[in-house]
Design brief:
Elements: H1 2-6, E1 32-38, H2 42-55, E2 59-61, E3 73-82, E4 85-98, E5 120-126, E6 140-153, H3 160-165, H4 171-205, H5 212-232, H6 244-271, H7 278-290, H8 296-304, H9 307-329, E7 331-337, H10 339-343, H11 346-351
Parallel strand pairs: 1-7
Antiparallel strand pairs: 2-6, 3-4, 3-6, 5-6
């Protein structure tokens, strides 16, 4: 070291790095794909209307001494604690909870079944590992809960009056709106299945040596996420009808596929000057804020101060733009199918 400082000796070091193998892109015009297209029937609209009616049912008090059941609406007050200490945002007064709605963290609503007005009980839950508030993510908590009132849902008649209660002019206008929403949903599922088929085609047409550092990084991320989810849900590999060794091998295949497709899509984007604009990223952040009413500023700050989170929004936008580029060149044939066939999983379709 003294020799280096005084200039009497040279510094020698070795750098090891992986060189990305050249990627020879396939001719996308040779790709043939089938796009599944489903019509919207009267049955689909009726089922959707039933779901809307269920979500907008009036509730009536169940009376003194009544116990809460699944689907009931319970008004509660609560104080949450972690390691015996109350935490910010963990308390509430006169909060309405519909049991079974999934609005609260896993396990919270289930433990409200059987509670009565005036009754207090202690709920023990754990925050999900991917909870937005990093200070609470993965932590066990206890909530001291007191029931205030128990209400049961009442039936709804689907007619013009019901439609007007939702801000629509008539039942027909509500049906038209439902049809439009279903079309967007069907189109979304059709797009996802078409995209999956395209990615399969790209995966099968591109073979090159993968950078093992990227593969290992992708695998470690997948594996860690899987183990954390299994732990939070108290599941084992046996519950999934597999072993740790088999699961490891399967996730390594997935990691290889993801890295290969990621590099291929990046190469296509680079060769064809496909970019993600700042406006597109801003619109994606706005979409995220709309999913969390009342917490808009928190969401904005989260993405503004977290480059990795921002990249997580940019990446899927880029991917969709590259997919659109390829689909414009590929041969895509539409195939009319039923709603059941459209929503059928690829595995089910192969075994049918």
């Amino acid at each position: 070291v003294e020799g280096l400082i005084s200039g009497k000796s040279d510094l020698a070091f070795t750098v090891a790095m992986e060189i990305l193998a050249p990627i020879e892109l396939a001719d996308f015009r040779t790709i043939e794909l089938t796009k599944l297209v489903a019509d919207i029937g009267d049955k689909d609209i009726e089922e959707a209307l039933d779901r809307i009616a269920r979500q907008n049912r009036p509730y009536a008090d169940k009376g003194e001494g009544a116990k809460a059941e699944s689907d009931d609406r319970v008004t509660i007050s609560f104080v949450g604690k972690i390691d015996g200490t109350p935490f910010e945002g963990g308390s509430g007064e006169d909060v309405v909870v519909q049991i079974g709605s999934g609005s609260f963290i896993p396990g919270f609503e289930d433990q409200l079944v059987g509670i009565a007005a005036g009754e207090s009980r202690l709920l023990k839950v754990s925050f999900p590992e991917n909870y937005l508030n990093a200070d609470l993510a993965g932590k066990a908590a206890e909530f001291e809960v007191t029931g205030k009132s128990i209400e049961a849902p009442r039936e709804v008649t689907i007619d013009d009056e019901f439609a007007k209660s939702l801000g629509m002019e008539s039942l027909q206008k509500l049906k038209d709106a439902v049809r439009d929403q279903l079309k967007r949903e069907f189109d979304g599922v059709s797009r996802q299945r078409l995209k999956r088929a395209l990615l399969d085609a790209l995966d099968g047409r591109h073979h090159f040596e993968l950078p093992q550092a990227l593969v290992e990084q992708e695998f470690e991320g997948l594996w860690k996420s899987t183990l954390e989810q299994m732990k939070s849900e108290n599941r084992t590999f046996a519950d999934e009808k597999t072993t740790e060794e088999e699961a490891t091998a399967e996730y390594r295949k997935i990691a290889n596929r993801r890295v290969r497709l990621g590099l291929v899509l990046a190469e296509i984007g680079d060769k064809n000057s496909i970019k993600v604009t700042d406006d597109e990223v801003t619109r994606a952040i706005v979409d995220q804020t709309r999913q969390m009413p009342g917490r808009e500023q928190q969401v904005w700050d989260y993405y503004r101060n977290n480059p990795n989170a921002l990249a997580s929004l940019r990446a899927p936008i880029f991917e969709e733009k590259v997919v659109d580029f390829i689909l414009a060149l590929a041969k895509v044939t539409e195939k009319p199918v039923s709603r059941e066939e459209l929503y059928q999983s690829d595995d089910d379709a192969q075994t049918a």
